[in-house]
Design goal:
The complex is a heterotrimer of chains A (317), B (302) and C (554).
Chain A lengths: L1 H28 L4 H6 L5 H11 L5 H14 L13 H36 L4 H15 L2 H15 L12 H30 L2 H8 L4 H39 L4 H10 L3 H29 L1 H14 L2
Helix pairs in contact in A: 1-4, 1-12, 5-6, 5-8, 5-10, 6-8, 7-8, 8-10, 9-10, 10-11, 10-12, 11-12, 12-13
Chain B lengths: L1 H35 L1 H19 L35 H37 L1 H16 L2 H12 L3 H27 L3 H8 L4 H37 L11 H8 L8 H28 L6
Helix pairs in contact in B: 1-7, 1-10, 2-3, 2-10, 3-6, 3-8, 3-10, 4-6, 5-6, 6-8, 8-9, 8-10, 9-10
Chain C lengths: L1 H21 L15 E2 L9 H4 L8 E8 L19 H4 L4 E3 L6 E3 L2 E7 L2 E6 L13 H13 L7 H4 E8 L2 E6 L9 H7 L6 H6 L14 E7 L3 E6 L19 E8 L3 H9 L5 E2 L4 H9 L3 E16 L10 H10 L2 H7 L6 E3 L27 H10 L6 E7 L4 H18 L2 E7 L2 H5 L8 E7 L14 H4 L9 H10 L7 H13 L3 E14 L3 E3 L15 E2 L3
Parallel strand pairs in C: 1-13, 2-11, 15-16, 15-17
Antiparallel strand pairs in C: 3-4, 5-6, 6-8, 7-8, 9-10, 10-11, 12-18, 13-17, 13-18, 14-18, 19-20
The chains are: A mainly alpha (317), B mainly alpha (302), C alpha+beta (554).
Amino acid sequence: MWKYIANRFLWMIFVLVGTAIVIFTIMFFVPGDITQTLLGFDATEAEREVLRVSLGLDKPYIVQLMRYLYNSFIKLDFGTSYVYNVPVMRELLARIPRTLMLGTACILVNALIGIPLGMVAALNQNKWQDTLCMVLSLLFVSIPQFWLALQLVDIFAIRLNWLPAFGIGGIKYYILPVIAASMAGVASNARQTRSSMLEVVRADFIVTARAKGLKENQVVKKHMLPNALIPVVTGLGVGLGKSIAGSVVVETIFTIPGVGMYLMTGINSKDYPVVQGSVIVLAFFSAIVMLLVDIIYAMIDPRIKAQYAGRTRGMRK
Amino acid sequence: MRKFRKAANNSYMAAMNSGHERSQSLFSQVAGRLKENRGAMAGLIIIILILIASFLGPLFCTYGYNEMNMSQRFMAPCLKHLFGTDGYGRDIFVRILYGGRYSLLLGLSGALVSLLLGIVLGLVDGYIGGAFDTVFMRIMDIWSAIPGTLLSIIISTVLGSGFGNTIIALAIGSVPLTVRLLRGQILSVRKEEYLEAAASINASATRIMFKHILPNVISPVIVSTTMNVGAIITAAAALSYLGLGIQPPNPEWGAMLSAGKTYATIYPWLVLFPGCAIAIIVLCVNLFGDGLRDAIDPKMKN
Amino acid sequence: MRIRRFWVATLTIAMFASALTACSNKESTTPATTPATTVNDSTTAGNEAAADQTTSGNGLVAAAVATSNADPTSFFPLKNTGGGKNPLNEIYETLVDQDGPGGKIYGNLAKTWNMDGLDLYVEIYDNIYDSAGNHITADDVIYSYEYSWSQGYTTSKYLSYTDGIEKIDDYNIVFHWKEDQLDTYSAIDSVLLGQFIFSQASYEASADGMATTPVGTGPYVLKDFMPGSSAVLERRADYWQTDASLVGPQHQANVQTITYKFISDPSQVVNALKSGDIDYADTVDEASLAYFLSSGDWTVVRTYDRNLFCMFFNCLDGTIFHDMNLRAALCYAINSDDIVAAVGGQDFARRVYEYGVPGVTNYNENCESWENYYTVTDLALAKDYLAKSGYAGQTVQIHYYAGEFSTYCEAISLCIGAACDQLGMKYEIHPTNAIEDVISTVNGNWDIVVSNVGGDGNAVDYFRNNFNNGRYEGALINSFDEKIDELYNKTYTASGATPENVSEFNQYLIDNYYVYGMMERITSAVMRSDLIADSSVTTRRSWTLPGSWVYYVD
């Protein structure tokens, strides 16, 4: 098992380096001149050339790429932002907690609200609980996220004045953003749980369990849930990846200075170090989450356990 | 030797025929079950109606979708302007109709492009397997390490705005998922006997891929692609919010929603109609997708 | 189940629709076009302010909160241009300063300055100390200029106009001017105004080039900074200029703490005002303005911000608009009044009649009554020109600058597009953050560029970049028109900046339909009536200076 994890971890590094190369290359070929953004319209070409040389932008692609990879992965230095003049790594370390908090809270809400909702709907199929669940989840899957966010702000922050409308500070600043960001995830998790529960509910081994005389509770907990949860766990994992990306929109609306907004600022002002650094960090978290998901699979699903066992045997060769 | 070959041939033919019969009636079975599902049918019909309305509707409207009239800015819905007007005096009703083209085309093309790409890549990978598979899956890992929306944003910035570029940007984010799904299915199907039989008589690689593997693995991919349409339409709206994607004056619903949100509290019709339009289309697509999944896998229905 | 699904879907739509309407403001009506409560040209103050104002000393107002129009990002002194740099103007100082756009130039760190032949002598005060206690001497001044340039931050342009700086003694320096730059328009101002002065010791002591720990000579210091969110400035008790009569209008410290809050979503600005999170906002959107205008709790101040929004044609050989008839056609089809209405009307923009804005030095008022495409909108005439031109169905590529004022540029582009529609021309609109890459002749696949041009109080300012052959290999209009070159070199000089030359230049541009100046931006700033009495003092670039506002004190 540990060999498997180590193996996956190594591949993760490879994936991260690959991501860095891809992003660097993409940003390199984006049309746009950072020196113009930094110096404004007044600067002449000669003046901008001075800045270009000082930032190292006049070197060829390969040189810049190699220097960047060396700095990022060996020295763990993502460079200095052209716009913020602060080392990217330092700024990211300050911002990651905020985005992580947003993302983790979203996942928790997804799991704690979405899964029970789906279970209730599945166990009461075709009754009013089911209909309500379906209605709510269809609703929230269809509403555009930013519109929902602005309505929440309008109701809770302006009319009722219960919560702040934007910015960061304490827990209460995160409530509205988390609600806005997680509603779609709750909805899709509820539907996913419901459909995979329904799949399991008719399965043979459930009939067997019932025939053996087990209590309904037991049946649900010990037999239905573990099997139903497998696709749900995948959904949650993918959901974290999506919510980290979707945080861009939510952070922009609520002016939360997290990694998402940092990335958008970087994209808009052609701030290469920022874009590259942020994407690598986001990809890193995405990869870690997928690794965790795989591990959880291995623990839940006996079929997969067997597969891994076979794999590790193979690797010992 | 000849006896052996004949026996292998016979078993191959038997397997082929049974597979064939199965796949033919499978399609009609699915279609039949789908027809009985009122929700899915309603979804399909509404989508078709939207399609017709968006392509033919504007021809019958009094106003052009980009006809500006500064003296009639921000008019509330009335007889002359069923959905009111926006900040340039343009009639919102005809813009909503016209905008359907973009949402439908974006969603359908995006999902289709990602499906095709995914099929080709997934089939090739699933069939060849081995070392190629490992390397390929690592490349897919890199591709999917960057979250889909992020990838769409970055690609949109690189390619610029415009209809074609937006489709590419949106599709590229969802390819890895399709490939993974396909690959999983393929790996499980490959073990089946008739495939081994087919390989033993040297049926060509393409023949095996398309005639044998594909029909059996396609169902979950089709369902997820249908769901993808809804996701792409929503992603297009998010792109518009960030200023990328479809550009004005094209009346894409997400762009209309985004442009109107500043005025939403005072002129609610600016966001009400595009918002409902997006919701309806995503809803119908999801209904249809749900129905399709139920039809393909009937065990859940009883 | 199947029937149920359908009703579920219908129920959802009904709920959605009602949710959307329920959340709207019940008192919605079309806003009346009432005039703003205060209409200003950024120099007058309200009468009632005089009684309650206080300048410095005791009884200071405790705090003011303002939005910054963009994320301040950092306090790096070398980079002092671009959006969001407002807070820097309270922390750092330059050798001289200017009282608002086109205003009087007065000494700030410099006691005297005078030009003698090719030498500009500057004497600084001998009692300047920055907030870390370091004494600012001539060495620091030279360091500020030279280090900034060496890092590529060339906003002072001093090495473009001079051969360098030399130290005379601890408080005196001299710039050696380049001979061919003697007549360059506003060159001296640029050099003296364009560089923040900081102490070498303080700069080197800072780990990140003072990006998060700025140390300047100004009346405020940075107390708290959250990049991407907010910055808190606090008044300095030991400001070096103790003689109150010598402290310029831009360097007042009338409030104890200033908080700049960055709000990234424009609709949130209104929310922030209403919930009391901020006391002042640069601009609000058109729909909310009516609310603030009619409410007694808020004062709305309209200011002409001298930003000219205009459209340039690509006139290079081989492009669509090389043909003057086509340019004329489009110009006559466009209606500036419509464009002003599209961005919100009288509270947001006013139309202009030439390539320049009214009310600045060297502006010729007569242009408002000339007869040309500015004053005449005639679709029939436009179609005549279209028929005479060689337009064969090509698609017009319209690019607009999607930076700070993207809503304005976008509105203009849409209106140009509507004019194209009326003429039956095809078009495509592209936003871009990198206008330079669009217009450089190498990349040029553009037909029209919509952008804003800033000015500092003189009509000549607007010619600054866009007709400079040395800059774009053919000026922005890419026409290689020698007459433009000649007019530019004649007008954009210290001696040539006269109303006659400006008019001549403009007339030539009009006769050839090269550009179309559409409107001047008006900012409608909203502020709390009970806190802020007068917010008219700004930097020379029209940036807000909360330290210099006049406040009500109870």
